[in-house]
Amino acid sequence: MNYITAEGYRRVSAELVALWKVKRPEIVRAISAAAAEGDRSENAEYIYRKKELRETDRKIRHLEKHLKDIKVVQDKPKNRNKVFFGARVSLCGESLPDGECQYRLVGMIESRPEVGEISIHSPVAKALLGKELGDEVVIVLPTGEKRLVEIVEIDY
Predict the structure, then answer these.
(1) Residue 99: per-residue pLDDT
(2) Which of 19, 64, 66, 134 would be 109's cystine partner, CB 3.0–4.6 Å?
(3) Class for domain 82-155, per CATH?
(4) Which of 86, 109, 98, 103 is nearest to 137 (CA)?
(5) Beta pairing class for 136-140 and 146-155
(6) How do 88-92 and 146-155 pair as beta strands?
(7) Domain covering 2-73 assigned CATH 3.90.1150.10 in the classification
(8) Reported confidence tier of residue 19, pLDDT bands at 50, 70, 90
(9) Average pLDDT of span 51-69
(10) What residue ranges do the domains of the chain occupy?
(11) 86: left (phi > 0), else alpha (psi -120 to 50), else beta?
């Protein structure tokens, strides 16, 4: 079973609708226009748009597959001083770039590491799960580097 936050479900569902109703029809129109220009074997626009359509269809299939077998987690845990799914966790430590950072533990399909939303299955999230406010935790970054951090805030 895959889990997703309510916010993540809305965002991913909206992305799927946009792919079906906006992006895919635009690509199909562009393919038709490019095909009308003649020889398709040397038509760069046609070839590019066909590739773009395949990638878009792959993304649609991926989202549809994952949204079928998903549980939307809306309830907040009773103990809000512990890190569970959906938590926003603020960390501080001398080894962090600015001395602090924040992560939100989310489902795999909704993760966006570039904005601090990390998959519950990531090594950093696994290190934080079940920990409490004030706990010191060793997190292992994707680079393999280890950092000692303290949990200074947990929010749901």
Answers:
(1) 86
(2) 66
(3) alpha beta
(4) 103
(5) antiparallel
(6) antiparallel
(7) no
(8) very high
(9) 95
(10) 2-73, 82-155
(11) left
